[in-house]
């Protein structure tokens, strides 16, 4: 009898297994995102794109400004060098001996009564 009961239980299980409808497995197409999640993702991508373009644009502007500053500094140094050279030339050409020699060369004479002393 025990064997009959075991056999009946096995048959019931087989019938139960056969009765269950087979569920079709849906092919997973990836992650399903809600509209809100899509909007957050798109907003994040837009913000990231805007931030990168802004940063690159600012760096480009800074590079050009630095380049102009360096060029102006080089121009200033060149002008200062020219000014120093011209100042040295003025000092050399304005010596008393040179002026006196040039005056004698042009036929002028030194009259001590007409000399006025001018101080800076």
TrEMBL record:
* Swiss-Prot/TrEMBL GO biological process terms: FtsZ-dependent cytokinesis
Give the matching Pfam families: DivIC
Q: Which InterPro entries does its entry note?
A: Cell_div_FtsL, FtsL/DivIC
What transmembrane ranges does the database entry give? 39-57
Membrane topology annotation: Single-pass type II membrane protein
The UniProt keywords, alphabetically, are: Cell cycle, Cell division, Cell membrane, Coiled coil, Membrane, Transmembrane, Transmembrane helix
Coiled coil segments of this chain: 62-89
Cellular-component GO terms for this entry: cell division site; plasma membrane
Q: Basic and acidic residues bias: where?
A: 11-20
Q: What does this protein do?
A: Essential cell division protein.
Supply the name of the protein.
Answer: Cell division protein FtsL
Q: Which organism is it from?
A: Anoxybacillus ayderensis
């Amino acid at each position: 009898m025990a064997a009959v009961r075991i056999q009946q239980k096995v048959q019931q299980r087989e019938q139960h297994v056969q009765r269950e409808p087979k569920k079709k497995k849906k092919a997973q197409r990836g992650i399903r995102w809600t509209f809100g999640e899509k909007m957050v993702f798109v907003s994040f991508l837009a913000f990231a794109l805007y931030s990168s373009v802004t940063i690159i644009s600012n760096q480009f502007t800074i590079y050009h400004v630095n380049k102009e500053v360096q060029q102006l500094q080089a121009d200033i140094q060149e002008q200062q060098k020219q000014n120093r050279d011209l100042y040295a030339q003025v000092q050399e050409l304005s010596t008393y001996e040179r002026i006196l020699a040039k005056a004698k060369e042009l036929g002028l004479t030194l009259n001590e009564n007409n000399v006025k002393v001018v101080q800076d």
